Amino acid sequence: MTIRKLKTSESDFLADMLYEAIFIPEGTDPLPKEVIKDKSLSKYIQNWGKDKFDIALVMELDNQLIGAIWGRLLTDENKGFGYVDNTTPELSMAVKNDYRNQGIGTKLIKAIASEYQKIGVECLSLSVDKANNASNLYKRLGCEIVEETETSWTMKKRIK
């Protein structure tokens, strides 16, 4: 397995991973793929690479992409679900179903934290559904709950 930066030609994979990152509770029908075109979601990948805070890494295994993590600095005027402030990039992550629970998420989070440290970022944020098993991973890696809704947590991780 190799972690590397997303290539410009792989933007379709980033869109696929955005769709995969949407938490669907067990027993619930999946949402239509077009849901990622909604403004609340498309902001996470639209015009990718526009500034230095757009960082995306992929996990590759046997020449196949099996997961991705990416971050973007969303501001008060264009808040994401995990927005905490105008200086904290918000992370999104997905791993293909067959490869979950194998430590890939841990490796991806550590790798992107390292990339953000290089450009002077002090904290990262994310949003996670309370019922999503990934919330345990985030807690284990030092993410702290900074805001709570009925169904989700906004979490923040200090990386510097």
From TrEMBL:
| Keywords carried by this UniProt record | Acyltransferase, Transferase
Its Enzyme Commission number? Answer: 2.3.-.-
SUPFAM superfamilies tied to this protein:
Acyl-CoA N-acyltransferases (Nat)
Pfam families in the record: Acetyltransf_1
Q: Which residues form the N-acetyltransferase domain?
A: 1-160
Organism phylogeny: Bacteria, Pseudomonadati, Bacteroidota, Flavobacteriia, Flavobacteriales
Matching Gene3D superfamilies: 3.40.630.30
Indicate what this protein is called per its UniProt record: GNAT family N-acetyltransferase
| Cited PROSITE patterns | GNAT
**Gene Ontology MF, one:** acyltransferase activity
InterPro entries in the record = Acyl_CoA_acyltransferase, GNAT_dom, N-term/lysine_N-AcTrnsfr
